[in-house]
Amino acid sequence: MHRIPLVLASASPRRLDLLAQIGIAPDRVVSPEIDETPARAELPRACALRLARAKAGAVAAPGCLVLAADTVVAAGRRILPKAETEAEARRCLALLSGRRHSVLTAVVLATSDGRRSERLVTSVVAFSRLTAPQLDAYVAGGEWQGKAGGYAIQGHAAAFVRFLSGSYSNVVGLPLFETAQLLRGAGWLSP
User: Fold this and answer.
1) Which residues pair with 121 in a beta bridge?
2) Is the dihedral of CA 108, 113, 114, 118 positive or negative?
3) Which candidate, 149, 169, 175, places its Cα nearest to that of 160?
4) Which of 17, 27, 35, 70 is catalytic?
5) What is the pLDDT averaged over residues 113-130?
6) DSSP labels for the chain?
7) Mean pLDDT value across residues 8-26
């Protein structure tokens, strides 16, 4: 059914793994070189959409479909960073401890003629209250590195999740149902 090459605009191995889980293998994977810093006073929804669109635009390829996504972890209106240091990971996890937060992923499917289909998926995650030993052990494991909000739900942080409403794959980094719907809508997957 799919004859048009599919390019995944992502540096995330998790997105590639998630696509494989539903039998999708992109023809190419290209890491988009964009600045992922949230704009001043930018809200989480707008940030995820802007970054996913920018990634799709940065990787635009003639005759190809480009699939791009961006995931944002937000505590209220506050966008949490992709943790790069232990101190940053600790700040994120301390903020998420004992409370709910949102995980928003914008998915963009762009054609070479400039048409674009988009979905924005929001999941709500609640962490238990983290103890100092739990926090120390998680940070020592290094799993938080480069992860939005300082955690990976598909790893050891799963033990902290007391509640999840919405798409689990969204929290990992790519909402699979919505992604498949976009690809079906473009004729890349059979209906």
Assistant:
1) 105
2) negative
3) 149
4) 70
5) 96
6) ---S-EEEE---HHHHHHHHHTT---SEEE------PPPTT--HHHHHHHHHHHHHHHT--TT-EEEEEEEEEEETTEEPPB--SHHHHHHHHHHHTTSEEEEEEEEEEE-TTS-EEEEEEEEEEEEPPPPHHHHHHHHHHTTTTT-BTT--TTTGGGGGEEEEES-HHHHHT--HHHHHHHHHHTTSS--
7) 95
pTM above threshold 0.90: yes
pLDDT at 93: 97
Upper half-sphere CA count for residue 41 (Cβ side, 13 Å): 0
Q: How far apart are CA 132 and CA 182, in angstroms?
A: 43
Q: Could you tell me the domains of the chain?
A: 6-185 (3.90.950.10)
Q: Does 2 have pLDDT greater than 90?
A: no
70 is catalytic: yes
Average pLDDT of every residue of the chain: 95
